[in-house]
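Suppose a colleague, Dr. K., hands you the sequence of a protein chain of 374 amino acids and asks what its three-dimensional shape might be. Before reaching for any lab equipment, you can write down a predicted structure in token form. Begin with the sequence itself:
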Amino acid sequence: MARKVLVTGGAGFVGSHLVDALLARGDTVRILDNLDPQVHGPARRMPEWVPADAEFVNADVRDAEAVRRSLQGMEVVYHLAAAVGVGQSMYRVADYTAVNTMGTAHLLQALVDDRGAVERLVVASSMSIYGEGRYTRPDGREPRVSTRSLEQLKRHDWELHDPDGVPLAPVPTDEAKPLESTSIYALTKADQERMALMIGETYGIPSVALRFFNIYGPRQALSNPYTGVAAIFSSRLLNGLPPLVFEDGGQRRDFVSVHDIVRALLLAADGDAAVGKALNVGSGRAVSVREVAETLARVLGSGVEPEVNGKYRVGDIRNCYADISLAREVLGYEPRVAFEAGMEELVAWLQRQERPESTVDAHAAELAARGLTL
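The predicted structure, expressed as tokens, is then:
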């Protein structure tokens, strides 16, 4: 049955793919997006992929009245709008808190004031809220360390060790892992998730939070230094520049195609099994950052080697990749896009785009100037 759906951040990377899928199944879609210049460029031009048959509201989630008006008549709400960037959040504290935490507060306040109008709320959370992922000791005992000290990072000792010196081994991270946000961005994403689930339970608004892992695919913002690492690496390789890799490149993440993310979003709006829950959405596979750079170079036929700088960015974690068992169980979610095939799709899309001037070096310099790299 067709429904009326609001997508905040619907002109962005994930949101635009979701809008396409919603329209394809017959839903009526309204987009709320402020065309943030960091994502869409200083001219704030409407992306070519925003469809004419979706209603577009050019407004900011920090504008409480605009949010309230956008909710009128909606049955399903996908809240994807957010300021994104671990490093930047550590020096733009007020901005990130205003967009992510207060923007979500405005949305929830409007839902509270007009209770009963919305049948489902789905909020985009993030794997960053975990901090480091799960680890085990060889002897099976519970690890006592959950972060890396500045002292060990200055020694370029990248992996985690317990206080007795025993090295810890990363394992898939499940939803029961305690949350230990290591950046303002992560903290505000935890705010978004917890606020949505709390208000949902209190006021009977069926709500679901999806903890996205590292998303890649077409339509990532190429001029934004805080976009996904796969797009950043690809853009540099296409410009004949080496991918810039922090630490030793051995840090492991879960890279998931935007197409799989959209499938999870659609599933989260249907059925009751996921209501009130926060669910991991990833590929279920660990891939090192260096492997991403090498795969992209291979796909492009480039001989450019990554530049491994041996530096650490404040707020970064070493390993975190998804245990997706719960999403499989309650959503019926199953990732379909293999890593290499997804990288090929990303590169094919990038080769058709006008390549903007790389902002990665300027971003790195900004972090260094603020003492956020070691």
